[in-house]
């Protein structure tokens, strides 16, 4: 790893932390010696980067506006793939933000990297997530953020329609379909609802409250426990 790249990584690590990190921990993360970390810290301090702390105690960067991040090709590929997925499979607002991010990334790429990025082996089709599902996703995301109930009709696997009032907790993409994770007031338990089977959804002006036994993380833990024991 070149020194310039190591210094960028060192600054990013220090900037991302709320508490000081020791030279030994930094050395382990960057796979260098502690002596190298001490020299790098001195170099940053002499360059005007406000690194606070000392040997044996730890280091931390105080308030500081950093220059734009430098990404490797692999990091750019990951960012662009993720942005393309958001653009294709989420709601219009998130899609617009993802496209804006892609535009900004492409605007600062050197020509050599642009060509490599254009040759990404991944394609993200959007035809399976139509405008109706986009609007549903937007409404659900807003309801999740505001912790407000939703009302809808749901078509189950047997093509039976039921009326539901639910507390939306999160949206999960399983690789083929988006699924709403919610606490169903009809069943008084967690339920999964495929977005393509949700009909006539409307927000309800009723705020719900989450707690340790009713939230998305708790649901995920229950799912993990189920599959680990099966």
Automatic annotation (TrEMBL):
Domain of life: Bacteria
Domain Helix-turn-helix type: 6-59
PROSITE patterns for this protein: WYL
InterPro entries the UniProt entry points to: CBASS_pafABC_assoc_protein (IPR051534), HTH_11 (IPR013196), WH-like_DNA-bd_sf (IPR036388), WH_DNA-bd_sf (IPR036390), WYL_dom (IPR026881)
A Pfam family that the UniProt record links to this protein: WYL
Limits of the WYL domain: 139-202
Name of this protein: YafY family protein
Species this protein is from: Pseudoalteromonas haloplanktis
């Amino acid at each position: 790893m070149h020194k310039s790249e190591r210094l960028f990584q060192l600054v990013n690590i220090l900037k991302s932390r709320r508490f000081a990190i020791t030279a030994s921990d930094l050395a382990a993360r960057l796979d260098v010696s502690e002596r190298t970390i001490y020299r790098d810290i001195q170099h940053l301090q002499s360059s005007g980067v406000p690194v606070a702390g000392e040997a044996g105690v730890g280091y931390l960067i105080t308030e500081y506006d950093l220059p734009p991040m430098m990404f490797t090709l692999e990091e750019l590929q990951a960012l662009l793939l993720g942005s393309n997925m958001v653009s294709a499979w989420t709601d219009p607002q998130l899609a617009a933000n993802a496209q804006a991010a892609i535009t900004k990334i492409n605007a600062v790429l050197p020509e050599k990297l642009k060509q490599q990025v254009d040759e990404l082996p991944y394609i993200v089709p959007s035809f399976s997530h139509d405008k109706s599902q986009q609007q549903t996703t937007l409404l659900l995301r807003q309801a999740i953020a505001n912790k407000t109930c939703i009302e809808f009709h749901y078509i189950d696997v047997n093509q039976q329609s039921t009326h539901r009032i639910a507390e939306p907790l999160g949206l999960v993409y399983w690789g083929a379909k988006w699924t709403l994770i919610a606490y169903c007031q009809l069943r008084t338990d967690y339920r999964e609802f495929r977005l393509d089977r949700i009909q006539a959804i409307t927000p309800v002006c009723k705020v719900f409250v989450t707690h340790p036994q009713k939230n998305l993380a708790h649901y995920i833990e229950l799912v993990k426990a189920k599959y680990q024991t099966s």
